[in-house]
Structure of ABC transporter ATP-binding protein:
Amino acid sequence: MTTTVLEARSVTRRFGSFTAVDDVTMDVAPGEVVGLLGANGAGKTTLMRMLLGLLPTTEGTVQMLGGPPRRERRRRLGYVPQNLGLYRDLTLTENLAFVADAYGTPAPALPDGLSRYADVLVADMPLGAQRQGAFLAALSHEPEAVLLDEPTSGVDALARATLWDTIREQADRGVGVLITTHYMQEAQQCDRLLLMSQGRLVAQGSEADIVGSTRALVVRTDDWAAAFSALNDAGAAVILDGRTVRVADAGRDEITRILTAARVDASVEPVPATIEERMLVLAREAR
Ligand SMILES: Nc1ncnc2c1ncn2[C@@H]1O[C@H](COP(=O)(O)OP(=O)(O)OP(=O)(O)O)[C@@H](O)[C@H]1O
């Protein structure tokens, strides 16, 4: 019996002398939604492409559905790439017919939200509808694992919620889902997170596991712009959240000293860190 649908064992990928993915071991179980988080260039897409068997590993092995990447196994996966993989000069119906033909499955019915775009060229559809169409195409052959590369990027909150409903439905049916996202709020919707920085896996677990009891600092001041500049210039892991200045890692005394030296009148309070702040700290440590 297969206990994982996707698996990477000590996987490294180099492009020339550059290491894009560095000794990563991870897996996705059936029915699990695993979020792959990391800054631009962290290696998320490269890892996904190796898991799909689209890109050879330099070192290490990948397994899909219990065996090495092969055409007959790849047919049982669904993939929505960052650029969606739809033909922009075909209508939505034509795209779905094309995919159905390739898999030898019936074309899926259009859900209510998409039916009005049946005969519209994909290029003329709003991005949210394009993404929904790409989901439909990737899921039409009832895959056992789906890999989604930033599927909610650039779409509004309503479209994002609809896409997440679809992701959950798939997981409830037993499909293993690997999803990359830049939106930290979406981390909460995943069963497990993998954090990548500079090609390496720097943390994994639930959001609570990863954040743990780590603390950040909130700097309260009317002069938030000066506080931000002073801390940034001093190399602190500083974040501007609206007009609130937060520091992801660093001692309270050190931050107070920097602000005093810059003549910024402020109070500095420790608070529970967010996943974004924890990620920033782990990424800095990895560097
Ligand atoms: N074919 C390639 N040749 C050379 N370098 C590459 C190639 N593909 C990716 N890279 C490099 O590998 C690194 C990781 O890229 P990757 O696309 O995997 O990152 P990512 O985490 O998916 O980023 P993003 O969130 O921007 O998509 C980047 O520095 C990228 O420039």
